[in-house]
Amino acid sequence: MKYGIAGIGYFFLIVVKQFGTFYEKRTVMMNKLKS
């Protein structure tokens, strides 16, 4: 059970990181289009 919770937390962390980098790239692209 402990390992399952840790696995979910680790997976969630990866998803958040991936989404964060994607969001940053999108923001940079939007800024480039605006300027």
Automatic annotation (TrEMBL):
It comes from the Bacteria. The chain crosses the membrane at residues 6-23. Keywords: Membrane, Transmembrane, Transmembrane helix. This is Uncharacterized protein. It comes from Heyndrickxia coagulans 36D1.
